Amino acid sequence: MLEDLTFKSLGNVNYHEAHALMKSHIEHEKFSNEIWLLEHPPVFTLGTAADEKHVLNPKDIPVVQSDRGGEVTYHGPGQLIIYFMLDVKKLDFGPKRLVSTIQGFVKDLLHGFLIECNFVKGAPGVYVDNKKIASIGLRISKGKSYHGISINFDMDLKPFQQINPCGFKGLEVTQIKDLNRDISQLQLEKSSIDLLKNIF
Q1: Which of 36, 112, 156, 196 could form a disulfide with 83 if both were Cys (CB 3.0 to 4.6 A apart)?
Q2: Does residue 166 have an active-site annotation?
Q3: 3-state DSSP assignment of residue 176
Q4: Is residue 144 part of a domain?
Q5: Which of 163, 166, 173, 188 is catalytic?
Q6: Distance from C-alpha of 169 to C-alpha of 136, rounded to nearest angstrom
Q7: Contact 125/166 with Cβ under 8 angstroms?
Q8: Strands 72-75 and 63-65, how do they pair?
């Protein structure tokens, strides 16, 4: 467990700004373990393995190259983004264990909201009836992790039709509000923090 772990709720932050802040944080000589909860204005991001052909028609939504793992995804208002800046060396977590721990966290979070979900082998993330509800994209540099997970909460899902989400043609997406209308954004953030405190 990390004794110095702090949580920050940052509201709506531009993707470029958040990315610069993450990089500067993990490279700082006085690094501290932090988990950030935020959302982004509309943006498509390409992971290091992404093929630009999976961006079918961006229209007026910006497309940004990122240094996280994974393929193309969409971020927008009403989606909870959780970024993990953790000393994974100290935790003794390899990339696979970090991904499976975060997937397990989302499963427990959704279970608490009475939403049954599953994982798909070879396609990181979390699914409900084969529709994706959460996407994972991480990077580890010099023993520190950054980037994280996006959980669809209460958003316009149409932009996902402008891409092949995570590189899968025709992959459908879903969100918490379509499955349980009683959850507020505040509840979602609070439950996330409570669970993550017990994990890390």
Answers
A1: 36
A2: yes
A3: helix
A4: yes
A5: 166
A6: 18
A7: yes
A8: unpaired
Domain span including residue 46? 6-199
CATH code of residue 143: 3.30.930.10
In a domain, 1, yes or no: no
Helix (H, G, I), strand (E, B) or coil at 184: coil
Domain count, the chain: 1
Give dist(CA 151, CA 157) in Å, integer: 12
Of 45, 39, 123, the C-alpha closest to 82 is 39
- Using left for φ > 0, alpha for ψ between -120 and 50, and beta otherwise, residue 34 falls in beta
d(CA 2, CA 33): 7
Residues in the chain: 200
C-alpha–C-alpha distance, residues 120 and 118, integer Å: 7
Any idea of the CA torsion for 103, 105, 111, 113, to the nearest 10 degrees? -120
Q: What is the pLDDT of residues 78-103, one digit of tens each?
A: 999 999 999 999 999 999 999 999 99
The answer as to whether 173 is a domain residue is yes
Specify if 157 maps to a domain. yes
